[in-house]
Please model this.
Amino acid sequence: MEKIKLAVSKREAKTPNQLRREGFIPGTLYGAGVASENVQLCAKEFSRLPQAAYSHMIELDYEGTTVNGLIRQVQRKSTKDFVYTVELYRVNLDKKLTVSVPLKYVGASAAIHAGGQAVENYQEAELECLPSEIPDFVEVDMSMIENMEGAIHFGDIKLPPTIKILNPLDEIVVKVVAPKAAPTPKEAAAAGKK
Model:
């Protein structure tokens, strides 16, 4: 995957609302062992970032200096896609970090082919790894589920030995259940009288 880039500059001496009106998002750039800095970034440029930018390392162009970073938190207005603030984490390439990576369900399950329904409990996994090892996604092989009520746990997911899953290994990621039977006409009539 090609590197995602984002321009960041020192925050001007204006209120956060003034910056937002001028098309900027106020933010913070911080990291282990370095002082936290107030920054600003172009709202239009930030809105064009691909979804992968939220779980991968991005290259920050900070006042002409390249900084490796992660988007740690984005505060949005709940009713619309309006960003209030962004927290950026300065990454040390030699230290492991914790990231959320999307799950990708692949393969065909014999239980689903027989009429079962998949119940996905998770859409992402928490991983601990070096910044250079962050995967684009974590594959969940559905072909492992052969029978109804079969499940895949976090402990069943195969990853390189240098990447550690932080979710509880006994947690169910996905399960295949038998479809609920349609009520008989008699049951439907009884339910209607209640």
